[in-house]
Amino acid sequence: MERSFSLPFLFLVFSLLLLLFRCSSAQMPGFVSLDCGGTVTYIDELGLEWVPDDHLVYGEKATISVSNETRRQYVTLRHFPADSKKYCYNFNVTSRTRYLVRATFLYGNFDNNNVYPKFDISLGATHWSTIVISDANSVEVLELIFLASSPTISVCLSNATIGQPFISTLELRQFNGSIYYTPFEDRFFLSVSARINFGADSEAPIRYPDDPFDRIWESDSIKKANYLVDVAAGTKKVSTKMPIIINSDDRPPEKVMQTAVVGTNGSLTYRVNLDGFPGFGWAFSYFAEIEDLAPDESRKFRLVLQNDPEYSKPIVNIEENAQGKYRVYEPGYPNISLPFVLSFKFVKTSDSSRGPLLNAMEINKYLEKNDGTLDGNVINDVVLLYSSSEWAQEGGDPCLPVPWSWVQCNQDERPRIVSIFLSYKNLTGNIPADFTKLSGLVEIWLDGNSLTGPIPDFTGCPDVKIIHLENNQLTGELPSSLSNLPNLRELYVQNNMLSGTVPSGLLSKNLVLNYSGNINLREGGGRGKHIGIIIGSSVGAAVLLIATIASCIFMRKGKRRYNNRDELRHSLPVQSLASTLNDAPAEAAHCFSLYEIEDATKSFEKKIGSGGFGVVYYGKMKDEKEIAVKVLTSNSYQGKREFTNEVTLLSRIHHKNLVQFLGYCQEEGRSILVYEFMHNGTLKEHLYGPLTREQSINWIKRLEIAEDAARGIEYLHTGCVPAIIHRDLKTSNILLDKHMRAKVSDFGLSKFAVDGASHVSSIVRGTVGYLDPEYYISQQLTDKSDVYSFGVILLELMSGQEAISNESFGVNCRNIVQWAKLHIESGDIQGIIDPSLHDEYDIQSMWKIAEKALMCVQPHGHMRPSISDVLKEIQDAISIEKEALAAREGNSDDMSRNSIHSSLNMGSLDLVGTENYLSLDESIVRPTAR
What we know:
Layout: H1 7-25, E1 32-35, E2 42-43, E3 49-52, E4 60-63, E5 76-79, E6 87-92, E7 98-105, E8 118-123, E9 126-132, E10 140-147, E11 152-162, E12 166-167, E13 169-174, E14 188-197, E15 218-219, E16 235-239, H2 254-257, E17 259-263, E18 267-273, E19 279-286, E20 300-305, E21 315-317, H3 318-322, E22 331-338, E23 341-348, E24 357-358, E25 360-368, H4 376-385, E26 407-409, E27 417-421, E28 428-430, E29 443-445, E30 450-453, E31 466-468, E32 473-474, E33 490-492, E34 499-502, H5 504-507, E35 512-514, E36 520-523, H6 542-557, H7 565-571, H8 577-581, H9 594-601, E37 607-611, E38 614-620, E39 626-632, H10 637-650, E40 661-667, E41 670-676, H11 683-688, H12 699-719, E42 724-725, E43 734-736, E44 742-744, E45 751-752, E46 760-761, H13 773-778, E47 780-781, H14 783-799, H15 816-825, H16 843-856, H17 867-889, H18 892-898, E48 928-929
Parallel strand pairs: 1-3, 14-15, 27-29, 28-30, 29-31, 30-32, 31-33, 33-35, 34-36
Antiparallel strand pairs: 1-13, 2-3, 4-5, 5-12, 6-11, 7-10, 7-13, 8-9, 8-11, 10-14, 14-25, 16-17, 17-24, 18-23, 19-22, 19-25, 20-21, 20-23, 22-48, 26-27, 37-38, 38-39, 39-41, 40-41, 42-45, 43-44, 46-47
Helix pairs in contact: 12-14, 12-17, 14-16, 16-17
């Protein structure tokens, strides 16, 4: 029997089919939409499927409510502890395929603290951005375009400087073909800065399903500060319902191209903030003629960029270039230098009857990839063996941008893992052989587990100093190959099930060795001993100094002879800093004789400095090495303790931005420290001391000095385990070498942070004017105390004023913090800038430093940034200043050939600094229509 269907019924069926098509299209390969903190899977109003992130073992869920925000994915979020770990989401991807990854953040006061969080986000080993929340009720959106180079990627949150890291949504969108191809994609990501739909009829963005790749085309109707402003008079919106011929998937969707703005008075002008800039970027404009032009009419115009005449030459003729009406034309630059605030203009040519037209624009910044640790594949194989363990699920690169909680890495550009800390982690089975492939390994801690089987061959780790395997169930013999490790200093294998004899090579080696508790393990030579040998002790950092001094005296005076090796070892215990500090053992400092010191200084002839600690003299060794000799005057307990502290500490830290410690002398009641000589004195002398008249430091050099000092402090805070807190940062403790590069000095008051503790209880010491007020009140010392002092130094660099003055700051202020804060917060930055700078600076870089300095001197430590965050801001300010300096000196053409800050390069452009040049074909940097 023939059945008929009513029109309403057919319409309903069609609607259901359309809905099913939308839903199924959302499941296309490479589309992932995570509702962070969500609990169920659902389809949103766009047809996109959202899934919860409940597979994540870290973090906690929170529910929020924000007025005018009705999207379901923004009802929940996931937040993480504000600690030193990174927290990662892992995705499976297809290698050599391009993707867009989008992360969004809606704070909503989830923690009820009303303190806007600040933290970092990274893609794998590459730092992507610093998330700075400035409005509890606004969604922050970040997008990155990348070419997948491996089957998995990780998006990680870390480095909380304020509040807790959190995330609302995380999305992955796969592209097709050559969309967003660049010649540099193996070395750079594209960080999305602007994607604008001009002539939009509402503030709603255009995205999926109108854009099959779910790019978000932001409406030009949105009103934001300094974003799409300075609009020229006569600018009007135009639109069409006619189809636009789009021949390639990578062009904007048709709905975007059906609207445009037209400059009826002959010009279109806009000013827009570009997130992440200044820097090099990828910038394209999209044009389609959507107005009806008479046969005798034409539309031709030029792009005009302020101070960049080279970009004003090409003429845009839409119909001619697009080869017809309602077709897309895409001129652009795949590599162009752009500022933070971009002012651009399209101006009609003299022979054009119509003003310029603009449909859409995209601007992305090149973000240099970090390839991560060289040990990534090796350590990931270890992690796979324990994939169900919580410690094995941190994700991301093992070293960058912050290391996993159980590894430590060196400071190389491609870091290597130097330490493994897996004590008491319930490890079972054999010791993973992959550990022995870590060629840079210095120490490995696997004690307190249930490991079985033999001890593997560690000869593939020639730098290893410390091996802790005690309190396991290891069997077999103690390998003789351990004797061949040239740097081995500590070997703990007690309380296992080892058997056989201890290799004679280990017994004759100068190391800490403990093999007790292995009832079947004996010394060789038939003596039948099975008592472990323990060399060394852990009785405080001062033992290292005592041991070294004793050694020095022993070697020099030779009053006692030791014929028995064991007697010698037990008489001179060597402090194992690793036992107490979770770090490699300190190297013993060089012990100078008083005769050597007197000879080098010509009996302390030339005094070059003095302070509460004593007097500093100039010296020159027999090998012509210049030295600075600090003779301490205090023989009090405190003075001796500071001397011991500095020797112990400086013996184990080495960094190019810390003054090099060469050794010490302690004879005839004198305590003497020897350092490298710094030819240009202290920063204090150059800012407001006698050297100011001789050589005033310009602003860019001050920024570079700040960068050097911040690098040194960052090493103390993050490169040492445990971290070291300087406690006496000030301009007189920042020294300048012959090249005016800065190094941090004077560690007499420094303290080790206590591992796992948020602070160190300490008697307050430091210098008035630089002293953290929170530390002064609470006696709770943290690394943020150093950050406060560094903020004072930044203010001194800006102003050329001392930290404390009874005259310079007026009747209401005695210190630089109060004075600078009054000016900066009122917008009067000019009121604190050093007049000797003579206006030779870029105000944007000055503001960047001023704002960061104020954050550093916040009254409470948790409100201050980390020194790593401060360093990033200083580096950004240097980039801004270098570009401004090139413009001020009128050397744009020269800079274009040599500098990363040039925008006029017509040959090759440097994307990564002066040491690595990326050579480009000349055609690439010309305007390109794709």
